[in-house]
Amino acid sequence: MDIAIRTALPAEYEALGELTAQAYLDDGHLDLNEDDDYLNVLRDVARRAAEAEVLVAVDPRGHLLGGVTFVASGARPWADVARADEAEFRMLAVSREARGRGAGEALVRACVERARATEGCVRVMLSTQPSMRSAHRIYERMGFVRTPERDWEPFPGLRLLTYGLEL
User: Fold this and answer.
1) Facing residues of 123 across strands?
2) ω before 77 within 30° of 0 (cis)?
3) DSSP code for 61
4) Is-contact 71 82, C-beta < 8 A?
5) CA-to-CA distance for 152 and 150, rounded, in angstroms?
6) What backbone phi and psi angles, to 5 degrees, belong to 13?
7) 1 has a pLDDT exceeding 70
8) What pLDDT digit, counting tens, does each position of 126-145 carry?
9) In this predicted model, what pLDDT tens digit does every residue of 107-132 receive, in sequence order?
10) Other Cβ atoms within 10 Å of 31 Cβ, number
11) What is the SS3 assignment for 21?
């Protein structure tokens, strides 16, 4: 399948926010389900786009397949684990209908390419939940390695695993 990766358009923000929230809900990644405060963050693509780079995967007809937030060189507030000389990506999500067609991998590749194009960037980092096994397979296939010394808890009871890719 042909997949194009590009910067999200403002007209797509609402749909991408809903796609991302639904992916997290459908896969059971939110402890409080519909009552989870993180849903508001997942849905607020406009804020992410104003403070970081939001990328989308689209098919040849322009249908939205998924998206990701790319953070260059430890830029705050969206960098959780990246240091000043590292990039990070977050909130990778692919619609249920588009899974298994390469959209997730294409989005990760785009983040790696952007990190390589960022002067002084030496590594790409990400945080992931232990339950996101299909995403872990993508990361490992692409050369990311676990960095357990950087695992963290955004709040008690939610342990996030970290992976990094040396550039």
Assistant:
1) 86, 166
2) yes
3) T
4) yes
5) 6
6) -55, -50
7) no
8) 999 999 999 999 999 999 99
9) 999 999 999 999 999 999 999 999 99
10) 11
11) helix
